[in-house]
Amino acid sequence: LGVEWDINEYFNINASVGINETGGSNGESGWQANVDTSYETERTKTSAGLRRSRAPSGLGVIRESNQLSAGWSYSISNKSTLGVDFNYRENLGVNTNETMFFSTNYTRTLSPDWDLKFSARYRNRDDNITDVSSNALTATIIYKLPDF
User: Which end of the chain lies in a sparser environment, N or C, as judged by fewer CB atoms within 10 Å?
Assistant: First the structure.
């Protein structure tokens, strides 16, 4: 069940909730909730989101997940955009861990259907036994499907 609220031409909020249930003799149930906001001007877009879920794992343990995300982008021109994204997730239950993700990116429009995106990413995952981090530089070619 969800709702989208356009507060004005620049700012909107999306919220949703749901219930999930496993079959079988245990018949456990869980839920999830999401809230996303975005604020968009002629040159910038700012977004933030919160997510919470509680679901059966199939191993007899309830798995909980909390997530926070944020993003910001700036249009340098009608063909170039710079952006920054952040994401934090905490999983509890089976495989308890925390994951943090940060990236910066540059996108160049090549044509109305094609974009080229360069990004630098950092990711860290801590599961209370090991603390692992990684870095990545990527180049992605994006094809935009037409609206039907």
Answer: C
